[in-house]
Each structure stands twice: as C-alpha cells, then as structure tokens.
Amino acid sequence: MNDQSAAPSTSPATGSSPGSDADRTAPEDRLVTTLHSLALEDGPLNYTATAGTVVLREEPDGEEYGRGRPYAELFSVSYVATSPGEQPRPVVFAFNGGPGASTVWLHLGLLGPRRVDSGDAGAPAAPPHRLLDNHETILRDADLVVVDAMTTGFSRPAPGQKPARHHGLTADRDLIAAFVIDWLTRNDRWTSEVHLAGESYGTTRASAVAARLLDRYYLAVAGIVLISPVLDFGTIVFSPGNDRPYLHYLPTYAAIAHAHGKHEDRLLQDVVDEAEAFAEQEYPALLAAGLRLDPAQKQEAAARIGALIGVDPDWVERADLRVEHQAFLAELLRDEGLVTGRIDGRFTAPAGDGNAARMETDPSIDQLAPSYTAAINHYLRGELEFSADVVYEIMSGRVHPWSYKDFENRSVEVASDLAHVLRKSPHTRVLVSHGYHDAATPFHASEHVLAQLAIPREDYSERIRVEYYEAGHMMYCHEPSRLELSAHLREFVTGEGGTEDDGEA
C-alpha cells in the first residue's frame, strides 16, 4: 500500500439559512479522502479511500415543504477505483450485523483492499497485529462502501437525536436504505449496478433493505450477498414449544464433531449428509412424539443422535433428545476440559467451569476480535487519516434492546422480503455462503428457509447460488475458504458464475 496523500473533503450539511445560529451549530460531514495503489499481478489498482461521517437528513413530519433536518451521522469508508476501466463500475454496499456489530469484519476480513492477519483456529495471531494487502479484494471488480449501523463504529445520532430510535429492525432498515440513496446521489452513481452484502444479522438487514429500496425508492439491486444468513429467527432461536432449532442445528453439531475427530476416517460431506437426512426424516417425528415415544425408542434415538454429534447418548436422553447449541458447545469436549466456539466450532479454549451447563464465552470471538480491533484503529487513523473523539465500537451492547415491534406474535423473518424482491425484480440475483462449522447461523436452517421462499421453482434454481465452506460464521479467517469465497464473490458481481443448488450440502 503506497502513494497515500491526505485530501480532506468536507461537505457542509446545514438545515437553515446561511449565517443563522442554527447553521453554525448544525452537524457537518467529516470526510477525508486518501490516494492508494494496490500491486496486482496484472498491474496496479489505483483507488481513493474516503473515510468519515455523513449527515443524513429527513423532512419534518407535518410540514408540506419542510427543509431536511439532521437525524444521523453514519460512518463509512468508500473505495473507488481510479484506474482506467469499464464505467460505470458496480457498487457493493457491505455491512455486518449483530445487532451491534460494526462492519470491521467484512471490511478487513474479506472485502477491502487491506486485510487483517487474524490467524485461524489453533493458531490465532499474536500481537503486534498487522495488516496485509488483500489481492483478492472485491475492489478489483466493483467499488466498495462499508457502512456501520447506528451506535457501531463511529456512527452516532445527530445532536439532539436519540440513538434508540434506530435500534430496531424497521428503523435500521430505513436508515441504511437512506444511506444508500444518499451515497448514490452524492457520488452520481445512479447508473451503477448496486449490490448489497451482509453477514449474519447483516443478511437480515440486506434482505429488508433490498425490499425497502425497491418499494420506497424504486431502486432494484442487482445482487444480494448473504454470508452466514439468518432469514427466519424461528429456525434458530431456542424457545419453549419451538422444535425447529433442534432439527436445524443437528447437522452443524455433526460437522463440528467431525472437526474435532469424533468421526474418524469419514469425510465431512458424508457426515453432513447423514445428519441432514436424519434431521429431515426421522428426527421431526421423534420430537413430535414427545411423551408418546416408547422408552426403548427414545434410548435408541439418543444413541443415534449421540453418535452423530459426538456426545454421550445418556446426556442426549436426559436432554429429552433436544440439544441446545450452547449446551452442546460446553459438552462436546468436556472430557478434555475445553469449550468449543459458537461463531466457529473449530476453535476451542479451556473451560472455566468443567461442570458448566452452557459455554461461558466464545473462543472464536475471543481469539479473533483483538486482531480486528487493533487493525481497524490503526488503519483508520494511520492509513486513512481519519480520527474521531469517540471510541470505534467494534461490537456494542448499547444497541439493545433491539426492537422487533413489527413482528409481535409472530416469528421475526425477512424471507418474505427476499421473496418479494425476487418476484418484483427479475434481474436480482442472490449468493448465499454457509460455513459448515457455524453454530450461530446453522446452514441447514438457511437451506430450509430458502427452499420455502414464495418464488417460482425456476427462480430458486437459476437465481440463487449457494456455496459451502469448511469453516465457521466468519469463514474468511480460514485461508482456503477466504480464497474460495473471494472467487465466488468475484464471479457473482461480474456475472461470470452460475448458480449452484443441487440439493446437497
């Protein structure tokens, strides 16, 4: 990375007449643009990076011709290639999830021109942490905008506004959609293809934002990238009377057990196929039988489940055949004194309490987050030359409680939003990326939801591409998976790759 030169660019955003008291106190955009070059095999990729906060405005309610008033200051980094090439280039808007997670993970883990050396399961990076050039960056083929949701990163409400108004599915959706429209307008990019890329709850956000952009602004996105998706919370949230998560997590448990040597001499794909077949065919009937299940049948089922997921069948039987994910992660390697990762089940750490019923911490986040934290704070200030007087919130609990008020008495889901977009916009395509060892958003749950979308069968086959990786939620910390996912993203954005949905994991 070289050829950096600071070129501060500040765009005033005032909501009153020049010279007034309100004008002097109104928040303003704070943007810094720097020049960079990335050495690639086929020549240098020259680009600008614009980092900072922009002021978003809204028309006051009840005023026929109300002037826009500031309500949010969102932080983003925009990467725009300056090398000669086909114009206009596509634009990828990316965000993580949480809720409460900044976009540092996709930014420095996968998409940006610089990436963090985080290490991997069994060998997390030790300090001092370092940044590397990302020769697989999506910037080779599309301009990139990474944006932080409210109260994450440097994003904050405008003075006098309260952050809680944005802490909910619908309000967050509207805020990010407004940011996309604002960016396209400021940068004169309305003729560019627009892609949305989200990870985890960011896939919930991406589906909802795509629908909002289409219904409110008549903007049809070209592509939606769903990395470690959750489209229906009812498939993954363990709650009384809801057996769906037990079914959908089982194949992930089996994959994690395989990663820790519980299925010697077997291929991962064979283990996953067996677990999925059981979860789809026999397991639902066993759970539905409840107290009607014969004791011998229950014991036999516990033995089958225990063998699949690598735990004592007696423990499964005591759990009434219903294995909750944090309980499983505490139990799998209990005899070794270890707890297993939730974000990535390949990670382990010593258990603080060998008898704990649930995992007390997530080794995968504990071992990966420090490198991302150090890297983003150095990168923004040292290389992009932007600083702020608040903490860059990598992951913030201050967004909670997160509001799902529009889903009272029903499951929180955006599968209907995704189907809505696909029905209304015939050119929108979807790329779905699953990690086999992801115990946060299990792949089988996503498979199930995608298969139930209210769209024509041919659209499911031809417009949705599904890929799998031998890693976890943030599969890009596993180098082979990072390279594979980067290649799949490139094919998707450029239109060179087809769909892959053969019905198998």
Keywords summarizing the entry:
eleven-stranded mixed beta sheet, disordered N terminus, 2 domains, Rossmann fold
Summary, kept brief:
The chain is an alpha/beta fold and 505 residues long.
Q: Residue ranges: pLDDT <50 for 5 or more in a row?
A: 1-24, 500-505
Helix content: 25-40%
Radius of gyration: 23 Å
Classified in CATH, the superfamily of the largest domain is Alpha/Beta hydrolase fold, catalytic domain
For the termini, the CA-CA separation is: 39 Å
How many strand segments? 17
Region (Disordered): 1-29
GO biological process, one term: proteolysis
Keywords: Carboxypeptidase, Hydrolase, Protease
GO molecular function, one term: serine-type carboxypeptidase activity
Topology summary:
Elements: E1 6-9, H1 21-25, E2 30-40, E3 43-58, E4 69-81, E5 91-95, H2 104-111, E6 114-116, E7 119-120, E8 123-124, E9 131-133, E10 143-147, E11 156-157, H3 169-186, E12 194-199, H4 201-217, E13 223-227, H5 244-259, H6 268-281, H7 283-289, H8 295-309, H9 313-318, H10 325-331, E14 338-340, E15 348-350, H11 363-383, H12 415-424, E16 429-435, H13 443-451, H14 457-463, E17 464-469, H15 479-494
Parallel strand pairs: 5-10, 5-12, 12-13, 13-16, 16-17
Antiparallel strand pairs: 1-2, 2-3, 3-4, 4-10, 4-11, 6-9, 7-8, 14-15
Helix pairs in contact: 2-11, 3-4, 4-12, 5-6, 5-13
